[in-house]
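Backbone shapes recur. Consider a single case.
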Amino acid sequence: MNLLIKICGLTTSEAVEATVAAGADMAGFVVFPPSPRHVDLARGRTLAAQAKGRLLRVALTVDADDALLDDIVAALDPDWLQLHGKETPERVAAVKERFGRLVMKALGIAAAADLARVPAYAAVADRILFDARPPKDATRPGGLGQAFDWRLLDNLDPGLVHMLSGGLDPANVAEALRITRAPAVDVSSGVERAPGDKDPQKVADFVRAARAAAASAPAVARPRA
């Protein structure tokens, strides 16, 4: 099983180096001020330049308008744009066409009914990211460090290009992969010492555990790209 691993919410040079050293594939940079992992455009430019050619760079945004996305693309030059808000399939398609970048759309999952949206988004996004659906009173999108019931993904189209997120950490990523056989995983708070502060040892442990689980898993006919 050829697994893609993303470490998200990088805010420091140390975190970028830890992600490279651990052997991850993707670095996520959050451009969303309410997040404790937010990086402004100047900081994002520096960190993305540090990661260039070493990691695939992902700029995470939440319901960003074209003007903000123009600034993000100019500053970070990301390989991927990750849309983590309430963007419609039409908006996803428009972002992909306008900016010419690979686009990942995050979908919050809490019940089987939440998967009804997948075909519409899969038709326009390059990858679907499954995250835990936030509580109704949450001030930020995403799983907020919580996992969802991974068995909900049992009946996914085996050809769906996707990524598993939400509550993953070094201790549970192997079980998550055993249950879902996801072709890609994403972690943020699960490898931190404090919100926004990545722990290099936890990053290394996560990548090691995920790679070991993937190596022992039966091959599945799911694309990685």
